[in-house]
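Why do we care about 3D structure at all? Because function follows from shape, and shape follows, mostly, from sequence. That is the central idea of this module. The next example makes it concrete: a single protein chain, its amino acid sequence, and then its structure expressed as tokens.
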Amino acid sequence: MGRRWLITGCSSGLGRALATAAARAGDQLAVTARKTADLAELSAAWPDRVIPVPLELRDTASCEEAVRIAADRLGGIDVLVNNAGVGLFGAVEEVSDHELRDQLETFLVGPWRLTRLVLPLMRAQGHGHIINVSSVVGRMAYPGLGAYVAAKHALEGMSQALAIEAAPHNIRVTVLEPGMFATRYGTSLVQARHRVAEYDVTNREMLDGMRGLAENPETGHPDDYAATVLAIAAAEGPTPLRIPVGDDAYGHLDAAEQAYREEYAAARRLVRRPPH
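And the structure:
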């Protein structure tokens, strides 16, 4: 019997690639998007495997209904993939309270809510796997992405606590940390409504780079990402909590770890008390 997946954010990008790969592998899926019309091609290609489900992550009732439909139609949920999201670009000073809350609702509160709804089902069936899609910025930061970075750091913190709590119930937790992949994510980035021109010196180049992700020959292919996630889901025995995905992800995180070590050493030198 194949796995039963609930995957959010399947209208395009990495979520779409993962749903396609899982369906091709013979698994059963409930796939979500705000508009089910965006899922028509998936469900038409695999009508006996793919169930399209409307989902508004920021709405409690919508999340409850999506989990109910998935569990009823699939007979259970083996893998929950919290993938959905929309990017916001803006300096910390530019991002409003409303825009910040929207990012946190999408990248933290929504996944937390779905996780809370799915956990009782997984405990009852005696197994499960929760995959939270973070980013390399879950362990580092870039200018102009402060709200996104904050949400991903928080998602990773929640996942770390959850992994400890869920382990005795045979529920595995994985945090994916993708690098740069050729999707429409960069072109769909929404800019903060309030603009402060003085931040162009740090943020303009970053925004241009994000906009060009899909055309950059050095970015990864979504099909490779999907194959990696399927392999992680199929792995037996313990697996790392955090798993970078994409060759560039390891380079970015190697640099971040080195910077952390240098910062830590500098902090110790700064606060170390002189011997008496």
